[in-house]
Specification:
Layout lengths: L7 H25 L5 H22 L11 H22 L5 H8 L2 H13 L5 H21 L7 H27 L6 H23 L1 H4 L7 H28 L2 H4 L2 H17 L5 H20 L1 H4 L17
Helix pairs in contact: 1-4, 1-10, 1-12, 2-3, 2-8, 2-10, 3-7, 3-8, 4-7, 4-12, 5-7, 6-13, 12-13
């Protein structure tokens, strides 16, 4: 018996969830950390979401005992994707605009190509290399314009942008590692393990950074609290589930188009809802970066295909968010 094809409506809804929800997580992060400590907020979010997915997979009959040997891999992936990747972006959004962060995160495919090149020693084709060079030029154009426009804090803006680039490269490293050393369990349990491991590391980072001492629920705004639950429910649970479903029902190339739609959504939402700057140079830089990602994903799918790992902003992008 042939498996029935999913309805067009379900496909459209799933793409809308991945495009809009993951694109909006950057702005939601900015709202959340206005009155909530960044590492504590992010660690709590991922640990709860991971626990829900892990528990649901166990409820569906997957063996918890068989997952014990996979926790070291989950810890490595969670460290790269969530602690350094998402945690770095969350911290950096205290100093740079959410749209700028999203555009810098969009450089992830560039890092994936270079990491795979270094590991396999197989040179990417000319179009992929062109995409990498164009992407780097777009980043230079973007940073040169965006850093001087955020709160007048040029030094911390520069540090924030550098942290996002490091986070993007860490996310790429986690993606490559999870592709080469995947967690041997279902998608739900693997995602739950990654989020619980990464969330635990983020909570440890929160303790080191003194986030619990800075937490004041009485002073936390309803906007920040609402953004936290939005990230938990829509960013981590619904967004990831929609993306996992797409990977099973459309081609990987179509599913991966979120990588060059999310930054556009993030920039527009930041401009509309948070009065973030939107200049002609930023628009040109955004087009250059998105164009480079299109080149990389079109002509080098074997180097830049996004694995079925957690993304937020992205995740992630996501990274997400």
């Amino acid at each position: 018996m042939t498996q029935s094809r999913p309805s067009r409506l379900l496909i459209v809804l799933a793409f809308a969830a991945v495009y809009v929800i993951w694109g909006s997580t950057y702005l939601a992060i900015r709202f959340a950390i206005e009155t909530l400590p960044p590492f504590l907020m992010t660690g709590t979010r991922f640990f709860i979401a991971g626990g829900i997915l892990f528990s649901w997979a166990a409820f569906k009959g997957e063996s918890i005992r068989s997952s014990f040997s996979q926790w070291p891999r989950a810890l490595i992936i969670g460290c790269l994707l969530l602690l350094i990747g998402n945690g770095g972006v969350t911290w950096a959004e205290k100093y740079i605009a959410s749209g700028l962060a999203a555009l810098l995160v969009a450089t992830e495919p560039l890092w994936v190509v270079m990491l795979n090149w270094g590991l396999s020693r197989r040179r990417p084709n000319a179009m992929v290399l062109l995409g990498v060079l164009i992407g780097l030029a777009g980043v230079a154009l973007l940073v040169s314009d965006g850093l001087k426009r955020v709160n007048g804090e040029s030094l911390m803006s520069m540090v924030g942008a550098a942290v996002v680039l490091v986070s993007s490269s860490a996310w790429a490293g986690g993606s490559v590692y999870s592709n080469r050393r995947p967690i041997k369990s279902s998608i739900l349990m693997a995602a739950g393990m990654q989020m619980m491991a990464g969330g635990s590391l983020l909570l440890l980072a929160a303790l080191i950074a003194g986030d619990p001492q800075r937490l004041s629920i009485s002073n936390a705004s309803w906007v920040s609290i609402g953004a936290f639950f939005y990230l938990l429910v829509f960013g981590s649970l619904i967004g990831f589930t929609a993306y996992s479903w797409l990977l099973r029902n459309v081609t990987p190339a179509r599913a991966a188009t979120y990588a060059y739609v999310n930054p556009v959504v993030a920039v527009l939402l930041g401009w509309l809802l948070a009065s973030e700057p939107l200049t002609l140079r930023m628009l040109i830089a955004a087009a250059v970066i998105v164009g480079s990602v299109v080149l990389i994903t079109t002509f080098g799918r074997e180097q830049a295909t996004t694995p079925t790992a957690l993304h937020d902003s992205e995740c992630p992008t996501p990274p997400c968010a």
